[in-house]
Amino acid sequence: MLKRYLLTPGPTPVPEAVLLAGAEEVIHHRSQEYSELFLEVTEGLKYVFQTKNDVLIFGASGTGGMEAAVANLVSPGDAVLVASNGNFGERWQQLCEMYGAEVTTLEYEWGERVPPEDLRKALGERDDYVAVFVTHAETSTGAVNDLEAIGAIVRGHPALLVVDTVSGLGAVELRTDEWGIDVAVSGSQKALMSPPGLAFVSVSEAAWERAGKATSPVFYLSFEHTKKALENPRPQMPWTPPVGVVQSLALALEHIREEGLEKLFKRHRILGRATREAAKALGLELFAGDYPEASAVTSISVPQGLDGKKLNALLKDKYGVQLAGGQGKLAGKIVRVGHLGYFGPFDIIIAVSALEMALNELGQAVPLGKGVAAAQRVFLEEDAW
Amino acid sequence: MLKRYLLTPGPTPVPEAVLLAGAEEVIHHRSQEYSELFLEVTEGLKYVFQTKNDVLIFGASGTGGMEAAVANLVSPGDAVLVASNGNFGERWQQLCEMYGAEVTTLEYEWGERVPPEDLRKALGERDDYVAVFVTHAETSTGAVNDLEAIGAIVRGHPALLVVDTVSGLGAVELRTDEWGIDVAVSGSQKALMSPPGLAFVSVSEAAWERAGKATSPVFYLSFEHTKKALENPRPQMPWTPPVGVVQSLALALEHIREEGLEKLFKRHRILGRATREAAKALGLELFAGDYPEASAVTSISVPQGLDGKKLNALLKDKYGVQLAGGQGKLAGKIVRVGHLGYFGPFDIIIAVSALEMALNELGQAVPLGKGVAAAQRVFLEEDAW
């Protein structure tokens, strides 16, 4: 009878109606009916990406989308610049290396933000970078990089700006076109509040040009194949897609359009602020700082002497509240509260009250209800509903 | 994007898997397959009723079950005794009057409990009562009558003991056989955490005897027809049942058996106590007292000068948290928090934190987080998970 609460930064909670849409009869993926659904989803994605560029859809995870970006844009020997401040920055580096690029990495402590001026300096030092890879919202820490400032810097340089916004899209403002982002990668299982199964990649004209010249082997994740299928009289995907996820996503995007981007981002900012205020009220340390843009994930440092894995296990197995732990070198050191997608104020209250109780149960005497009260104050002040 | 929380005392939250079971293919209600499901449900109900008596199932609401009890047992002119301490006590009276009984009503203030000794006195005053009608958990207030004591008193008298346990069954201990309850009535949409649509009536031997003599007209809700269909080589219901609800209920009863009655009642007692402690910590008045058996519903008096309807409307329409208001003469004067069925500690935390915020928003400065903390303390002390 344990009620379960999935409060992780991906997968995220999916509204029941969205789940049920994916359980409807399978539509044939070469039919007119599917084509209409697919176009609707493509248009919905452009709305969230705030772009007029192509948005390609792949039957893949976010990592698949990231690999698509690298495989389609980078040829062996190409110079690329990676700014890495977490687990997914490292993934850009790994992918670029695997595809034979000559990689320069600006590496920052996990939890820090990439200082845009460092990119200006690096780009000033050599002019043959074909692309700059950067993370939007680092799922591993919750740090959010300033893409507006980074975009303004990269714009003055021939390199493409390629962004991993898997956890950012729909939770943190992203103005793909206005900020000069050539390629942005995301997925269905985060703020778009759909089941996992689809990756999205927006592609600017300059990126298309670069893709035309790239020589790395790529088939399933090919931009070209995907674009060609999109230009079919019945627009579709080149290979069999997870149709149920497309059906779910169509409904989720409808909900997002109804809410509208302004309210969507405001809701996420309030959820992030409430989570941070709650942690601070409990005397807990925010691992990745405290600023309004950190609206997708909040990382809280586990108090000294406590094993974060034990804390998360207690929360999940006993209380039914699933938060995320630290990845890689942060394993056991932080807990991460997701608040991207189908999250509302009471999800934060559940997460915070569960943390309060679990910490007490593990001998850390944080004051019960104090974090909840701090979150409540934010919700009332910001008129969260 | 408003997340909705149904925290009312009926309908109650239904686990997703239970809902989905009711969305499976329709089984023909005269088939062997249905018969097996139906028998399984009947056995499951006997387990929860703690009875070896027949448990009859009707395609009806709890009120339909109550009418079945009256229509099958009471003939015009019969003397009956009704103990009424709320809306559903009044319903017993209404039904008995409608079927032409000569009704004596012991009437108590809503929110009070029926003093068992009053029944002893009333039964001592005349010996021709054919039945005593009483409520177990009064949904309208949360008051719970002491059926063990009442049963011990009625046992020494020829009258049948007929109990409305629509909101009690599965939330508050009910020992049908041990306590000498001849007829107990319940429904699917309360602590049995299933969708609405089914009523259950347990019938003792003495009740069958009385039913054999009763002369009121009854067909759809007839004990006799229902028993006859149950004795068919393929046990079934006499008229077309809501098969989906039966399918859902079968799964819900499986969950209840897995949890076991002891844990089930302990969970409800903890939820009730946490709700009451939260209300007290906020300086709010408990409308129906403070005792461990009050484990199905908690009624909280709305502070002076505040309209309870406004409070509930704010909670529901803005916050997405649906609590119940007062019924009949209590309209606008109390809010009722349900905690029967598929409820867990975080449902109480949601209800309490929502109440805290809504009261503040309406100008009642209750301390944010203080009620939540009181509930948390109960959960930790009682090892709620």
Structural description of this entry:
The structure is a homodimer of 385-residue chains. Chain A has 385 residues and is an alpha/beta fold. The first copy, chain A, folds into 2 domains: 17-257, Type I PLP-dependent aspartate aminotransferase-like (Major domain) (Aspartate Aminotransferase, domain 2); 260-381, Aspartate Aminotransferase, domain 1 (Alpha-Beta Complex). Chain A has helices spanning 16-21, 32-49, 62-73, 87-98, 116-125, 147-154, 205-213, 223-230, 243-259, 261-281, 308-318, 345-361, 370-381, and strands at 5-6, 54-58, 79-84, 102-107, 129-135, 160-164, 183-187, 199-203, 297-301, 321-322, 324-325, 334-338. In chain A, strand 5, helix 6 and strand 6 form a beta-alpha-beta unit. In chain A, helix 3 (62-73) packs parallel to helix 4. The longest helix of chain A is centred in the last third of the chain and has 21 residues, at 261-281. Chain A is globular and about 60 Å long. The interface between A and B is large, with 40 and 39 residues.
